Amino acid sequence: MTVRSVIARCTAAALLGALAVIPSAAAPAAAAACSAPVVGDGILKPGKCIMPGDRVWSQQGAYFLIMQWDGNLVLYRNDGTPVWATATWNPGAGYWAVWTTGGQLIVYNQLTTRRIWDSGPWHAPRGSILKVQDDGKLMVYGPRLEPLAQACIDIEPHFC
User: Fold this and answer.
1) If pLDDT is split at 50, 70 and 90, which confidence band does 157 have?
2) Contact by Cβ (8 Å): 83, 63
3) What's the sign of the alpha-carbon dihedral 158, 138, 102, 90?
């Protein structure tokens, strides 16, 4: 599945408001590409989208990653303290995020599908996952579950 097909499917889902109303044989594929991640496993697999309001909780519920309605993708402690963010807030614009099959975290505008933030020039290998951990780290793990990078904020949010 290409990034372009995931963008198209996630955008269609966002514009229609619910995956259940997408007509055609593509509906199961769109649902798989844009369904909310499994609650509580802390993992965002390749091609999975985070729509506004979706949360990805760490296994023990200590932290969660949320695509806020204002366009900011934020990692919070369960007490509401922010730990990391993409700094992409823009009230009313409507955004969603995807962990791509090419190993990048990207935030898009829902209406224009314009990329407004990405994890930078670094790409994880195909099959890598993004994981919200109970120690507060947003980690990238390779296909063999080897740690590759974590979300950092120096001057701008990125992976290091």
Assistant:
1) low
2) yes
3) negative
- Long-range CB pairs of 139-143, under 8 A, 24+ apart, other chains included: 140/103
CATH number, residue 98: 2.90.10.10
Domain of residue 106, residue span = 37-159
Contact 18, 98 (CB under 8 A): no
Kindly report, residue by residue over 78-135, the tens digit of the pLDDT: 999 999 888 888 766 678 899 888 888 899 988 778 888 888 767 788 888 899 999 9
Contacts 24+ apart (CB under 8 A), 21-30: 29/1
Spatial contact of 51 and 68, defined as CB atoms under 8 Å apart = no
Is residue 113 domain-resident?
yes
